[in-house]
Amino acid sequence: xxxxxxxxxxxxxxxxxxxxxxxxxxxxxxxxxxxxxxxxxxxxxxxxxxxxxxxxxxxxxxxxxxxxxxxxxxxxxxxxxxxxxxxxxxxxxxxxxxxxxxxxxxxxxxxxxxxxxxxxxxxxxxxxxxxxxxxxxxxxxxxxxxxxxxxxxxxxxxxxxxxxxxxxxxxxxxxxxxxxxxxxxxxxxxxxxxxxxxxxxxxxxxxxxxxxxxxxxxxxxxxxxxxxxxxxxxxxxxxxxxxxxxxxxxxxxxxxxxxxxxxxxxxxxxxxxxxxxxxxxxxxxxxxxxxxxxxxxxxxxxxxxxxxxxxxxxxxxxxxxxxxxxxxxxxxxxxxxxxxxxxxxxxxxxxxxxxxxxxxxxxxxxxxxxxxxxxxxxxxxxxxxxxxxxxxxxxxxxxxxxxxxxxxxxxxxxxxxxxxxxxxxxxxxxxxxxxxxxxxxxxxxxxxxxxxxxxxxxxxxxxxxxxxxxxxxxxxxxxxx
Length: 481
Fold this sequence. Notes:
By secondary structure, this protein is mainly alpha-helical.
């Protein structure tokens, strides 16, 4: 009799050890934005509005480029599962070359932010602060992309704690720098830089992180097995870069559509004035904080699925994908419900300004459904990327998040036809439409994942039944049977 397939509990015990360091590390990453939001919210509403527009613009550029670089993760995960370690080392160097090339493009976009300012229609004072903020973040972008290579590689080889340690170190450096630069320290001769001070602190922290990561890759004996210093591994390799681009471009496009479907809300909401965009910024930061849990579970599940694909165990890969999705969905519903119940107290942690709290409070009413749908689509997309499927999810994102989310949000928020109820107008209209878009994308991606896994199930060859014992003819009943 064959042994029963491992159940959900077994899969959870395999996913959690990889997920929790990713979760802590991503909380540290989000801590960059959270500390900036809290400090700037207490500094001035104008700087907070600039942070919302500038932060959304930076994320739009960085996330798309990051998604291209992160193609290293499923590629190395499969190579690692197949024990092809030398080739995995080659992929690290090709991702580094790719990250440097993409940084040139990204820095140019950040240094000339006119398109983003035109979309936001920011006032002169806010626009000037956005230019200074994004100009400093252009200096941080190359370091961020180089660190993305380190993160994607270590995640793929089941070493997330190495990433978490550096991310926590970056946050430990970022917090005091931001506190000193936002409000200034007259005793030390430091002027109050407001939102620009946040960007200076980020640039310093990211470059220290990237330098530390490169030193670790060179000196930690764990990485010797990947031959990272071999001459043939270090040279640019056209076929390897091409393979990363073929997977990374649709991955980056999909992630960019997913993120811009949300970040462009801030740019459009800024047309409504400083108070609505400040309320949105707080709600957006909170939703981003909630998203770290399904993001961590998605990364861990995707890593295990890619490794099992490389090892040729497709049945285990399918099982892990489904179990990761079920586990993440349950946790997302639980966490969102708790936050919704304590939403007033949570907003009080961000700001004491009653006007900004009043603007943010109605938006959190959508947080439960928004977060559950967001978690579902993120987990499904992560598992699909482990199977190297990225183009179809991008098309789903475009239709759901841009078409329904941003397009529907524009129609509701600005009520061009005069038919939208007052409660659905303004920032709330964007959140309503964004939630609907996420629900549609979640349904579409889960349906796509189910179809893909059915196809993979059909390709799994069942094991041959054991032959009869020696001396027994096929079909003959053994003695005493």
